């Protein structure tokens, strides 16, 4: 039982506002963070609609709204405050949509959005308690359950464009000549609808770093890991392994670096753990691309290092004064 | 995003002003044993309550008058006719133990006066929002030097260093060495100050006296009378105020107007408590009074930690405040301790930078209090 609070001299008439110190605060709050993330995603979302047309808009809208509704429902069922007005569920839903092919059928989008919040977040105690990046949990479930619908190359077979990573996997480095650097940068190739919008994603990501919404450790280490590992392989055998820049600009590397790997709950805290986390994820991406069954590698790479987060968090400096 | 000003240096300090005597005193006595009763007439300087703790100081009537109300937390007095207690002749006290006892009876906390190799005088303002330390250093030098010679006698240091911000109005203190540190909060916190000067994190044999403590010592040394006043920053200026002065009076005299929705802060910006009533009397530990205007600071949010790591990256004690506070929330105080709860300086930096705006400092204080009262008891 909590003892009653006795406040001598407290007269209810002239009561003052009482709040805990400190009386200065920089944090954005959960709502601010989600809004900043949404703002950073906006250019890429617009560009996706430009490249893939209304299909992209359809997927984004559906995933976002289903994610919010699912979260609200789950919170209601759990008897907790419904706090979807902090936009974090919407943000997670959009992140998931960014990983889908633009042609994804409505049931797949809805299913993924439901999984994002229910399995990815609520099951573990809600936003902040999820040990794995929620949109990636949904992505992995869908990718395994409905491989055909999730496979970009297959799902978008009607399109005249190709998916670079699939070309690399099945036809080797020689097949990559068809892709111009500028097309890769502008998202004029097949891929997940949001994740291929390299330039706007990079801009959004850098803006997040500049405005101190995210710390640079994870994204930069992630990119360094991808470049380093890809460079190493390319050096060993350029006829077998693609150039590092190709890896950087394809699949969801840029998206993953700035938006997925930096998911606060599932990534470690502390400078060194963050750098190690980013590096390991980056290296893993190229390893999966080179030897794994999946063409992209980013989602599984991040999910795998998510599992290592608690371990990485143990890489700590000694507390003050400890011997 | 808001940029926080952690600067501790005050570049322009007016002399300390005397405040008009209030019409009523509410002297804080929580946790002490009362030495007076309702209806009693007290001389200025008479003992009101004694602190049971070792090394802690007594509390005295800061004006002559009549006790009109007594509760577990406050002794209320109406100032009126009456003289003051007779001064104690400190020069006749030869024994150090006896001196410490005498000082405690006169309202000076003797805890920092242990014998030590090195004596550090903490000349920094304790935190943003407080300029009273540097104001004392700039304008009450004679009293401080009196205090210093008494402190030297008890601590017997082989070296004595005054640590300052290097501000224009803050110069040396007697024949103390002077060292300047980067005056940015939390540099003023004791372990960090010791680290900055000695380079060691486990500096034993170092005593730290802050300017307010030195001033109290000096006041007692010069007058032989109990400490009944505090020097407090109210808004921009610094004032000498009788202990127990109601907030309402101090605010009005200091020219601060409290409106609906404002927070009245007792202490600095980082660690100051929010007052719950304008009738609260000012305690001896109070260093500043300020207003936090409605809407000026984003409110704390009752949300779970999102593990962003900002608190971990900023903690000067290199702890994981995110874990400590999560344990505190779920009553797992032993685990909080394993994460370094006892090392925490209580500086509040973690709570300032928390992305989710959790009440980290509040949870840490709660955990410390629980450990103190339950686990250690
Ligand atoms: S209050 Fe917070 S930032 Fe300061 S030492 Fe304690 S845990 Fe670290
Ligand atoms: S700053 Fe706040 S939200 Fe971030 S890890 Fe620390 S406690 Fe959690």
TrEMBL record, chain A:
Keywords associated with the record: Flavoprotein, FMN, Membrane, Phosphoprotein, Translocase, Transmembrane, Transmembrane helix, Transport
Matching InterPro entries: NqrB/RnfD
Highest taxon in the source lineage: Bacteria
One annotated Gene Ontology cellular component of this protein: plasma membrane
Claim: Lipoprotein is one of the keywords in the record: no
GO BP term, example: transmembrane transport
Listed transmembrane segments: 32-52, 59-78, 90-110, 122-146, 190-210, 217-236, 242-262, 274-292
PANTHER family: ELECTRON TRANSPORT COMPLEX PROTEIN RNFD, ION-TRANSLOCATING OXIDOREDUCTASE COMPLEX SUBUNIT D
Name by which UniProt lists this protein: RnfABCDGE type electron transport complex subunit D
Automatic annotation (TrEMBL), chain B:
InterPro entries: 4Fe4S_Fe-S-bd, 4Fe4S_Fe_S_CS, Ion_transpt_RnfC/RsxC, Nuo51_FMN-bd_sf
Record PANTHER family: ION-TRANSLOCATING OXIDOREDUCTASE COMPLEX SUBUNIT C (PTHR43034)
GO cellular-component term (any): membrane
Keywords from the UniProt entry: Iron, Iron-sulfur, Metal-binding
Taxonomic path: Bacteria, Pseudomonadati, Thermodesulfobacteriota, Desulfovibrionia, Desulfovibrionales
Transmembrane parts of this sequence: none
Taxonomic superkingdom: Bacteria
Protein name, UniProt field: 4Fe-4S ferredoxin iron-sulfur binding domain-containing protein
Residue intervals of the 4Fe-4S ferredoxin-type domain: 295-326
UniProt-recorded Gene Ontology molecular function terms: 4 iron, 4 sulfur cluster binding; electron transfer activity; metal ion binding
């Amino acid at each position: 039982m909590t003892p009653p609070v006795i406040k001598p001299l407290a007269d209810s008439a002239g009561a003052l506002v009482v709040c805990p110190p400190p009386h200065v605060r920089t944090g954005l709050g959960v709502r601010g963070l989600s809004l900043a993330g949404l703002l950073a995603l906006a250019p890429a979302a617009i560009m996706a609609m430009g490249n893939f047309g209304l299909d992209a808009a359809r997927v984004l809208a559906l995933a976002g709204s289903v994610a919010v509704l699912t979260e609200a429902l789950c919170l209601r069922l759990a008897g907790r405050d419904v706090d979807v007005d902090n936009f974090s569920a919407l943000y997670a839903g959009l992140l998931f949509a960014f990983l889908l092919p633009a042609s994804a059928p409505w049931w797949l989008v809805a299913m993924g959005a439901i999984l994002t919040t229910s399995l990815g977040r609520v099951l573990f105690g809600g936003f902040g308690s999820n040990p794995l990046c929620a949109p990636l949990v949904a992505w992995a479930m869908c990718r395994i359950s409905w491989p055909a619908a999730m496979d970009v190359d297959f799902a978008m077979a009607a399109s005249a464009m190709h998916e670079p990573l699939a070309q690399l996997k099945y036809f080797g480095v020689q097949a990559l000549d068809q892709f111009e650097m500028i097309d890769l940068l502008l998202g004029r190739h097949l891929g997940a609808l949001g994740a291929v919008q390299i330039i706007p994603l990079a801009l959004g990501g850098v803006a997040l770093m500049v405005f101190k919404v995210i710390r640079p450790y994870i994204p930069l280490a992630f990119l360094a890991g991808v470049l380093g590992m890809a460079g190493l392989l390319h050096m060993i055998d350029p006829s077998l392994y693609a150039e590092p820049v190709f890896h950087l600009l394809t699949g969801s590397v840029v998206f993953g670096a700035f938006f997925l790997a930096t998911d606060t709950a599932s990534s470690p805290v502390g400078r060194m753990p963050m750098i190690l986390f980013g590096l390991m994820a980056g290296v893993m991406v190229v390893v999966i691309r080179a030897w794994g069954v999946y063409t992209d590698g980013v989602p599984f790479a991040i999910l795998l290092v998510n599992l290592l987060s608690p371990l990485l968090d143990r890489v700590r400096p000694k507390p003050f004064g400890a011997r | 995003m808001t940029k926080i000003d952690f600067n501790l240096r005050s570049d322009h300090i007016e002399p300390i002003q005397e405040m008009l005597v209030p019409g009523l005193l509410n002297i804080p006595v929580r946790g002490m044993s009362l030495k007076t009763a309702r209806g009693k007439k007290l001389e200025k300087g008479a003992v009101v309550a004694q602190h049971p703790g070792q090394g802690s100081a007594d509390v005295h009537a800061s004006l002559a008058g009549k006790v009109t109300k007594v509760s577990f937390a406050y002794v209320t007095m109406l100032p009126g006719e009456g003289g003051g207690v007779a001064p104690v002749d400190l020069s006749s006290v030869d024994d150090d133990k006896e001196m410490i006892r005498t000082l405690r009876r006169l309202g000076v906390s003797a805890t920092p006066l242990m014998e030590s190799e090195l004596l550090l005088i903490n000349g920094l303002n304790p935190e943003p929002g407080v300029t009273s330390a540097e104001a004392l250093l700039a304008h009450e030098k004679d009293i401080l030097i009196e205090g210093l010679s008494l402190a030297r006698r008890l601590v017997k240091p082989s070296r004595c260093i005054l640590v300052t911000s290097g501000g224009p109005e803050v110069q040396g203190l007697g024949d103390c060495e002077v060292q300047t540190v980067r005056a940015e909060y939390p540099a003023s916190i004791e372990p960090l100050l010791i680290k900055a000067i000695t380079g060691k994190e486990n500096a034993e044999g170092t005593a730290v006296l802050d300017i307010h403590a030195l001033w109290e010592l000096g006041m007692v040394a010069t007058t032989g009378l109990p400490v009944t006043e505090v020097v407090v920053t109210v808004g921009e200026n610094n004032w000498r105020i009788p202990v127990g002065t109601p907030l309402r009076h101090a605010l009005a005299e200091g020219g601060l107007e409290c409106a609906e929705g404002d927070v009245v802060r007792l202490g600095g910006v980082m660690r100051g408590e929010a007052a719950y009533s304008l009738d609260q009397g000012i305690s001896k530990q109070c260093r500043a009074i300020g207003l936090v205007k409605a809407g000026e600071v984003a409110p704390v949010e009752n949300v779970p930690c999102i593990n962003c790591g900002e608190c971990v990256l900023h903690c000067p004690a290199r702890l994981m405040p995110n874990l400590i506070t999560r344990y505190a929330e779920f009553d797992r105080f032993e685990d909080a301790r394993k994460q370094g709860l006892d090392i925490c300086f209580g500086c509040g930096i973690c709570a300032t930078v928390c992305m989710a705006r959790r009440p980290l400092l509040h949870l840490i204080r709660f955990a410390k209090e629980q450990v103190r009262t339950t686990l250690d008891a």
